[in-house]
Amino acid sequence: QLAGAEPLGAAGSMDPAARLYLLQLELAKMRRLFSEKYPDVIRLKAEIAATQQQLAEAPPPASAERAGPAPQTSPGLLDPELSALKAEEQRLPQRDQELQEMSRDYRTTKDLYDSMLKRYQDAQIAQDMERSQSGGEFRLLDAAIPARAPSAPNRDRLALLGALVALGAAAAGVALAEHLDTSFHTVDDLRAFSRIPVLATIPRMLIAADATERRRRLRLAAVSVPLGLALVVLASYHFAHGNEQLVRMLSRGAS
Q: What pTM value is reported for the model?
């Protein structure tokens, strides 16, 4: 509790209006320093409410003829307290500034401490790693012996497998082309297909358009063959890369 609140407790016998004024000044000072949940702030609110209720319940003053001269509070009793409160109120901005400076210095010092602590911990970790690396001993148990032949793949088996796959693919391509081609290439093919007798045959007559079409097909085939080979290589790489079962199948000595 602040020392400025003591005179208010001792001034319980003063005039309620003057006491209410002093309590309000003290509450304003407390609110600048503390929150609404601070005990002294709560106490001052309660005293202000009680004083206001006391003023509201006080009987109206009697007339001048019946009551005589009204008692007056000596201003000399309130002047020291008011002066102290006003002086304290004037010093509040300065104290607030001092508090902000102290908080700023505290944050700066704390950041510096955290930075130095992190550097110290990093240095400790680096020192421990250096000690563990310098103190470790390595010894070669068995020297590596180069293999006389590659363990995989078996080139002969791989070549045979590639030839079989190529022959199978070629046969499948020929069969598919023959199945899709519905034209008659010879007179015997036509006679075998139809019972109508063939009266005459006309040889194929090549014109400039046919020659151009043939050249276009040759160029297309020349481009398609390398492209097909590239696709086959990419597909083979994708299929064989990381395929341990294929490696075991093509390894030397595999059953």
A: 0.30
